[in-house]
Amino acid sequence: MNQIQKSSNTLFTLLFFAWIVSMVATLGSLFFSEVMMFPPCVMCWYQRICMYPLAILFLVALFCNDKNVFKYAMPLVLLGLFFAIYHNLLYFGIVPETLAPCSQGVSCTSDYINWFGFITIQFLSLVAFALIFVTLIFIRRLLPR
């Protein structure tokens, strides 16, 4: 196996991993809202706006073996990661609730699930965006300079 083929296989694996993470996050959020009937808060909607297109972008990049996925996926990931971090800071009370965007409706600090004392919906979103961020960094390193 030559270096180009090895690099292509690594790219495929990383893109597949990013697509799996984005699909699990997308389907998980839909499951919580549509099956479990947990209404999403404002911050959840902002993160959904960033996550849902990623599932499609990574799928297209996977089929096209597109090395440039970093350029068009990273802005969505950074924005989603920002919202996820802010949401977790709100949830843990590090950012005061007065700075929450949810003045009406569902609170951004709602605790619908709490597995093992720390796994919440907010935490799951943060993990998903962080995993995709790290994966995109690895994809970026595959590109020739």
UniProtKB/TrEMBL annotation:
GO terms for cellular component: membrane. This is Disulfide bond formation protein C. GO terms for biological process: protein folding. One of its GO terms (molecular function) is protein-disulfide reductase activity. It is found in: Membrane. Belongs to the DsbB family. BdbC subfamily. The chain crosses the membrane at residues 12-33, 45-64, 76-95, 115-139. The keyword Disulfide bond applies. It holds the Pfam family DsbB. It comes from the Bacteria. InterPro entries: DiS_bond_form_DsbB/BdbC, Disulphide_bond_form_BdbC, DsbB-like_sf. It comes from Sulfurospirillum halorespirans DSM 13726. It is a multi-pass membrane protein. Keywords: Chaperone, Disulfide bond, Electron transport, Membrane, Oxidoreductase, Redox-active center, Transmembrane, Transmembrane helix, Transport. Its main location: membrane. The keyword Cell inner membrane does not apply.
